[in-house]
Design brief:
With 380 residues, the chain is mostly helical. The chain contains 14 helices and four strands.
Length: 380
């Protein structure tokens, strides 16, 4: 309301949150014309298939009811039980038809907007008793449109009904000359045809009303640009939500990174504050690739996983800090560090090929280029 008063136009499509909130309040697109069409079609199908049985049963029931035996006429105490029997028979006859129509009445909402039970929609609200607001709803644009629809529907159905009566006038008037049973059977047939033709008018009405109701519902839920911004701030835009998302992303990235540590050829450490896992595959890369890196607690986790899977751990603080500070996970190490890393890998590969009793001398640390000294000027 405040946005509309400030002149902002509702030009934005409703968000998922807006649609969900409206659904909880019972605000979904509905078409009474579609519901009526479903009921009429179901009625026609039922009457077409079982109409003969219903008409025959109704004929027998009416005939028996209008032709009581002599004992019933002389003993008034039998009237209640006779009336109850007639009502039970009538209920049993109408029950299948009523069941089909109830299912059809539920099918309409299920197709358009889905079945929905909203306590908020049926909750008592004092403002609903306000006569001024009630008149405002009646004389609103929506109320006028509903009035025009009702008048058009009345004129269309009335016109078709009048045409039906004129076309069946002779048959209707001739019913008085028929026997009761035959007249009832003939009336049932005419009713079925009349309902069928009247339903055709509802197809036209529903074809117009359903798109209009969907458009009207969507228009009612449209939002201003400010409402979209405010909603974003309340959900994904909130700092705590962003922080939580970043935390989950970091945790997922760390899990994937630790899963790659067993594939590494060596883990170069600081020895305690930094750990960098390297893997070299001459067929897929021209230089060793960083598959994992971390500091402090993550460095400890990397070393633990490496030790658990038998990956060699090589302590060389300057080289570990230089790789950690210049290379991201998945990247090849910088070219100036090739020689230093090559010495480490050569030592590790030679150690893996040698016998447990063989002595493999540890190579001297390769001096790093001047541009990498900044990563070793401070820290452990």
């Amino acid at each position: 309301m405040a946005e509309e008063q400030q002149g902002q136009e509702r030009s934005e499509q409703p968000t998922g949150k807006r649609l969900e909130e409206a659904r909880k309040k019972g605000q979904v697109a509905r078409s009474r014309e579609l519901n009526m069409l479903f009921v009429m079609i179901a009625s026609i199908v039922f009457l077409w298939g079982l109409g003969g049985w219903m008409i025959s049963s109704a004929t027998e029931l009416i005939t028996d009811s209008l032709s009581p035996d002599g004992e019933l006429l002389t003993n008034s105490r039998l009237l209640p039980s006779h009336l109850a029997s007639v009502m039970v028979s009538a209920g049993a006859m109408l029950a299948p038809f009523l069941f089909v129509t109830v299912i059809a009445a539920l099918a309409g909402p299920a197709v358009m907007g889905g079945l929905l039970f909203s306590p908020q929609a049926i909750a008592f609200k004092v403002e609903k008793l306000d006569p001024i607001k009630g008149l405002a709803r009646v004389f609103s644009t929506k109320g006028l449109i509903e009035l025009v629809k009702a008048l058009l529907k009345f004129l269309l159905i009335s016109g078709v009904a009048i045409l039906l009566f004129l076309s069946m006038e002779h048959e209707v008037m001739s019913l008085v000359s028929l026997e009761v049973k035959e007249a009832i059977m003939r009336s049932g047939e005419m009713i079925i045809w009349a309902v069928l033709l009247l339903s055709m008018t509802l197809v036209v009405i529903a074809a117009i009303d359903v798109p209009y109701q969907i458009w009207s519902h969507n228009k009612q839920l449209k939002m201003t640009k400010q409402e979209v911004k405010d909603e974003f701030k309340e959900t994904d835009g909130r700092p705590e939500v962003k922080a939580r998302i970043r935390q989950l992303q970091r945790e997922a990235s760390q899990r994937r990174m630790l899963e790659d540590v067993p594939k590494a050829d060596v883990v170069i450490t600081n020895p305690t504050h930094y750990s960098v896992a390297l893997r070299y595959d001459s067929e897929s890369s021209a230089a060793p690739v960083v598959v994992a890196k971390g500091g402090d607690l993550m460095a400890f986790k990397i070393r633990s996983v490496a030790a658990e899977h038998g990956v060699p751990i090589y302590e060389e603080p300057p080289l570990a800090r230089a790789i950690y500070g210049t290379t991201e996970i998945g990247d090849e190490i910088p070219a100036p560090l090739f020689l230093a890393v090559a010495k480490v890998l050569a030592y590790v590969f030679q150690l893996a090929r040698s016998a447990p009793t063989d002595y493999v001398p540890r190579p001297e640390a390769q001096p790093l280029p001047d541009e990498f000294q900044q990563y070793n000027s401070e820290g452990p």
